[in-house]
Amino acid sequence: MQEVSIVRKGTYIAAVSGGVDSIVLLDLLSKQTDIKLIVAHFDHGIRSDSATDSQFVKELAAKYKLPFELGSAQLGTDASEEQARNARYSFLHEVKNKYNASQIITAHHSDDIVETIIINLTRGTGWRGISSLRSTEHVLRPLLDFTKADILTYAKDNKLEWVEDSTNQDLKYLRNQIRHKIVTKMNASQRAEFLQLYQSQSDLTDQIDAHTATLTSDKRHDFIMWPESVSLEVLRSQLKLTRPQARRALMAIKTAKPGTRLELSGDKSLEFTHKNILTVVK
User: Tens digit of pLDDT for each residue in 133-166?
Assistant: First the structure.
């Protein structure tokens, strides 16, 4: 675990929480001479001592002689995992846009894959939920082939320092329940089964994405006549939508009157004529 070779030349935002995973990621990335890194840390305002983590990461960025960006919120102790994640990624994307960076880089590893699969299964995931934790156009995850044990070994061998987030032990969060009650008690064979399922589903996802990319259309009639599952996948691929956004878009395609506008996100909406769909990006 001495390099992350899939990170190509360019500018990247390294998401660094201060925990061991992101500290190892930062150390690995700092050894690559052909990339420009910006260290980004988000203080959720959930813990009273979170400013200590921010200062730790700021000083670490200075040690590596890298630019540092700090984002913060006051989510409070009752904030959900989803609220925290949405706030954090919103900040990271703002930093990415500020520096015109290629991608955000996160420190997710193979143990996170297993946790995410189980979480999504408990929530009644669709087929994409099995392989949802993967690199995307905007987010690069170069440590997915490594385990938590690999990361800890690297950190100790290289005498790295990190901070422990006390909320990682709080069982009110579903991910912590899954981690401490299930994943940490799995044997190697059980973990391997989940990772094989993940790989198989990832391969299938790539095939489906490649096929749906050939089915672009701006005709309302096409989306109405295709099977619903096909229409949803084409909308997701063509317009870069989440599944809930794609469902809203498909409903509007079927029912919206000409001249209607559907707001999908802060920067994207759809407008409808009698026959066509017009994408509006602000």
Answer: 999 889 999 999 999 999 999 999 999 999 988 8
- For residue 96, tell me if it sits in a domain: yes
- Rounded CA separation 83/87 (Å): 6
Count of residues in the chain: 282
Tell me whether residue 270 is in a domain.
Answer: yes
- In whole angstroms, what is the distance from residue 49 CA to residue 3 CA? 33
pTM, 2 dp = 0.83
- Whether residue 159 is found in the same domain as residue 270: no
Rounded CA Rg of the chain: 21
Q: Is residue 207 part of a domain?
A: no
Main-chain phi, psi angles of 68, to 5 degrees: -130, 135
What does residue 178 show for φ and ψ, rounded to 5 degrees? Answer: -60, -45
Which range marks the domain in which residue 253 is found?
220-281
Question: Domain check: are 158 and 250 in the same one?
Answer: no
Q: How many Å separate Cα 201 from the centre of its chain?
A: 17
- In 94-205, beta strands by DSSP E: 103-105, 139-140
The reply to whether 144 and 249 lie within a common domain is: no
> Using CA atoms, how far apart are residues 129 and 132, in angstroms rounded to an integer?
5
| pLDDT, tens only, 159-203 | 999 998 888 888 888 999 999 999 999 999 999 999 999 999 999
